[in-house]
Description:
By secondary structure, the protein is an all-alpha fold. 78% of the residues lie in helices and 0% in strands.
Amino acid sequence: MDKIREIMLKSLEGDLSKEEKTFLDDKIKASEGLRNELKDYETLRKGLARLEYRFGDDFTGKLLGRIQNPSDLFGSFKRIAFASAAAIAILIGSVYLMDGSLSLDSLFGLHAYPIEEEFYSMLNF
């Protein structure tokens, strides 16, 4: 049935081969339902052909107003990218701090040496 409907719709455009036209004519002669369906398709096609499509006067302005400039999209992407990079850096830093492989003392250049030891090492130079 789908092949018949496909050929029926194709016949409205007039693009049928001889075999398809013969096949469609045989099926339409045999079935009143298909004849009615073909008439309905033709009526619908004629009705749609008579319709006129008009856009409002402000259609172009509204359409162009909704189209965003790509640079605007990049600006919002930049904010998201920087926030994401900061969050990732904080997470990586917290993992190292919690693991103990990175300490605040090593970040700030503080040593775990007692002050006296530092003093004595300076005296030796």
